[in-house]
Amino acid sequence: MLKKAGGNVGIFFWYLFSLLPFWFLYLVSDLLYLIMYHLIKYRVKVVRENLQNAFPQKTVSERLKIEREYFRYMADLLVETFKMISISEKELRRRMRMLNPEIVEHYFKQGRSIIAAAGHYGNWEMSALAFGLLTPNKTIIVYKPLNNPIFDNFLNKQRARFGSTMVSMKQTLRTVLSVKNERTITALASDQTPGINEVNYFTSFLNQPTAVFLGIEKLAKMTDAVVVFYRIERIRRGYYTFQFIPLIEHPKETAEYEITNTHVGYLERQINETPQYWLWSHKRWKFKPENFNK
């Protein structure tokens, strides 16, 4: 009872905070950056190690520059995520703009569904909110549930405000197969870390062997859906574009792991272009191939 009451109080203040204007939220962000990076040094060690392993060819000063830019952006990302629970459709369309909406209708006219591989890059939460505005057809977002069911339920309701259907990872196959005769778009994270019992494949990602989910590849082959990359780009503070980059049009004709290596490789190229917008504070490389080859 107390846990539920505490969760509801937290949600109430979250909503009040979200009503503040962007200009004020970015003042809060500037303060958050100083606290996280310079005062408490939130996961600085993790970020520094990840950057060193990913970019050994860069100098220490170059990696430190990325590190500082990352923490500045993470502070922005936090306040923007708070804002999204009360943002209007008009404001959302202005700040998260789709560059090639015609591609959705292009594949739908061919009778094809779309699977969008997305990374934890840029403001993926705001892009998930805008996902439901793409088409009147069903849009499905696959997510990893939070440990707190109160916040998990609340956040998913907010993500679905503009029409998307939220589906937990464990329900993905059942849900996608249930609508296989409809034209749908399904978004899945391409850089999520598998659980220890779900590690079946390692690929090269950011200069190191990386355990990856094979869900995108399996779903694409089962449903013959077109695989695209869900590319988000930050234009300036609070403003983004996103677009679908076609990767695989005929998944059933691909070799094993070809789809997985393709979408992971595209994300890697984008990170190499502007690395500060990826989630470096995540412990992405917990598993090593040698631990699974015994």
From TrEMBL:
GO BP terms in the entry: glycolipid biosynthetic process
MF GO annotations: acyltransferase activity
Keywords from the named record: Acyltransferase, Cell inner membrane, Cell membrane, Membrane, Transferase, Transmembrane, Transmembrane helix
Transmembrane segments: 12-35
Pfam families assigned to the protein according to its UniProt record, in alphabetical order: Lip_A_acyltrans
Keyword Protein biosynthesis part of the UniProt annotation: no
GO cellular component term, pick one: plasma membrane
Subcellular location: Cell inner membrane
PANTHER family for this protein: LIPID A BIOSYNTHESIS LAUROYL ACYLTRANSFERASE (PTHR30606), PHOSPHATIDYLINOSITOL MANNOSIDE ACYLTRANSFERASE (PTHR30606:SF10)
Protein's name in the database: Lauroyl acyltransferase
Organism whose genome encodes this protein: Mucilaginibacter terrenus
